[in-house]
Write a structure and sequence with these properties.
alpha/beta; Spore Coat Polysaccharide Biosynthesis Protein SpsA, Chain A; 7-stranded mixed beta sheet; globular
């Protein structure tokens, strides 16, 4: 079973108060994307992952990752995560069974988690959420992320983006981290059916979860711990991440 890893890294660093692309912001002297890339290579899953970048940040990220074998996909316009993965489609040939999507601003994800995630055999997709005890202290970092929706039988039925969530939805403690492992054929048969009819006017990759549920596909989930799954989107979250590294 072959898995192609796609890392989304086209975001800007505006919320970080930096002129650098977000994934190049340093965490204890190392860029976030280099921390993730080391874990990807240590996992042994893919020796030439795809990194999705913008035209503006490609050269900087390419310089940062010059020590790794990487192929780049260009996202010309920032139209959402679904659009970003679609930009990598031509680089994923039919020899691959799965496509595993990661994010360049998640520096704590381990090689062991990446490897176990890649070993899943999705009928459509497998997700890797985290489960919180509450939103207190540093867990508040997760409050503005999407929530996992499950039906009465406990099966995953969708992901509710925070911008579209009701007050009741926001009480859900099972949080979407964005990590997804897709059956390649299913992914590219369905990704063009995404639409941008939401408050952000973006093509959400997460809408594929509801699409799979509507098709009565099995959606498996593999939990990852909050610390390991934490992304960094602001200076405040960066400071919290640096504190966690000392514990």
């Amino acid at each position: 079973m072959k898995t192609k890893i796609v890392i989304l890294a086209a975001g800007r660093g505006t919320r970080m108060g930096s002129e650098l692309p977000k994934v190049l912001v340093l965490l204890k002297g190392k860029s976030m994307i280099s921390c993730l890339m080391k874990a990807v290579y240590d996992s042994g899953v893919d020796d030439c992952p795809i990194v999705v970048v913008s035209p503006e940040n490609k050269n900087l990220i390419e310089q940062e990752l010059s020590g790794y074998k990487v192929v780049y996909a260009i996202q010309e316009k920032q139209l959402g995560t679904g659009h970003a993965v679609g930009c990598a489609r031509s680089l994923v040939d039919a020899s691959y069974d799965n496509v595993l999507v990661l994010y360049g601003d998640h520096p704590f994800l381990t090689s062991e988690s990446i490897k176990s995630f890649a070993l899943s055999k999705p009928e459509a997709l497998t997700i890797m959420p985290t489960l919180l005890p509450d939103f207190k202290n540093w867990h508040h970092n997760f409050f503005h992320l999407g929530r996992i929706a499950r039906d009465d039988s406990g099966r995953v039925s969708g992901i509710i983006e925070f911008k579209d969530a009701s007050d009741k939805d926001k009480e859900i403690l099972e949080i979407n981290m964005g990590f997804m492992c897709f059956n390649r054929s299913w992914l590219f048969d369905n990704i063009d059916n995404l639409n941008s009819e939401n408050k952000a006017n973006e093509f959400y990759l997460t809408d594929l979860v509801k699409m799979a549920a509507t098709q009565n596909r099995i959606i498996d989930s593999i939990m990852v711990g909050p610390r390991e799954s934490m992304g960094i989107n602001s200076k405040e979250e960066l400071a919290i991440a640096e504190e966690l590294m000392l514990k």
